[in-house]
Specification:
11 helices, 5-stranded parallel β-sheet, alpha/beta
Length: 270
């Protein structure tokens, strides 16, 4: 017996008609855990798999979570009972530009279970292995990634990096995230693509800022727009202040600076 512990509206998103039919071929389906439940499909609203849960579902052997983190659900009692867990965080992510922000993005999405491919001519094999990423050509990254995040600087060789040809390589339903610089993307070509709903976009940077109130991007339901303030949280501002203070203290103490920008690094910054 497979218990699908997912609210109806969310269940329809995870398991539209064809996927629900495939799931039903694997065993009888129910919407709650019972004494006959051997597999549970969980979501963010599911209760933790603790001793109380196991008392009502003693035959439970697998929890297949529709999200990434299992921390709120997998309790010691479940491990002791021999319950096995899986998560659905294996979304292929492509990162263009392994800058400082790019590296932070890599670490974040890998922690959520993503498989990460990167395109960056300056990233060597040892660094790639340390980050746990695969270095691939740009076309391969675009075609193979569910989410593509731009973190490259604007240099002569990166300006217009994603034109109409490159954007057409994105797979249907992919999401392009640009929190770097709009000059990396042919924005008119991107608009023509997203207006067909072939792909979605999350954009924090634009050719004209602020983005005009009558800009056609604002009317598209599959585009998330932020006003070049993606990192403008209170926590991020405080963190920047902490970094500045720490660097000054290191300098005054004759210690190595952790965030020093050298001429070589400057040449690679947009």
């Amino acid at each position: 017996m497979i218990a699908v512990d997912v609210p109806p509206g969310l269940r329809d998103l995870f398991f539209p008609g064809d996927l629900w039919a495939r799931l039903s071929t694997l065993g009888p389906l129910t919407d709650r855990l019972t004494a006959d439940t051997t597999i549970a499909v969980t979501s963010w609203s599911s209760r933790p798999v603790d001793a109380e849960t196991l008392a009502s579902a003693p035959r439970l052997g697998l929890v297949a979570h529709t999200g990434a983190t299992l921390r709120p659900f997998a309790r010691d009692a479940a491990w002791d009972h021999g319950v096995r867990f899986t998560q659905a965080g294996d979304c292929p992510v492509g990162v263009i530009g392994v800058t400082r922000n790019g590296r932070a993005n890599v670490r974040l999405v890998r922690a959520l279970g993503a498989r990460v491919s990167v395109t960056d001519p300056y990233l060597g094999p040892e660094e790639a292995a340390e980050l746990g990423v695969q270095v691939v050509p740009l076309d391969e990254l675009l075609a193979g990634s569910r989410v593509v995040a731009l973190h490259a600087p604007v240099l002569p060789e990166t300006r217009g990096l994603l034109g109409a040809r490159e954007l057409s390589r994105l797979q249907p339903g992919a999401v392009l995230v640009n929190t770097a610089r709009s000059a990396l993307v042919d924005m008119p070509a991107l608009y023509q693509l997203v207006r067909t709903e072939h792909v979605d976009a999350a954009l924090d940077v634009f050719d004209e800022e602020p983005l005009p109130v009558d800009h056609p991007l604002r009317a598209l339901p599959n585009v998330l727009l932020t006003p070049h303030e993606a990192g403008g949280t209170l926590e991020a501002r405080r963190r920047a202040g902490e970094i500045v203070i720490a660097e000054i203290a290191r300098f005054l103490g004759g210690r190595t600076l952790e965030h020093e920008v050298t001429p070589a690094a400057m040449a690679r910054m947009g």
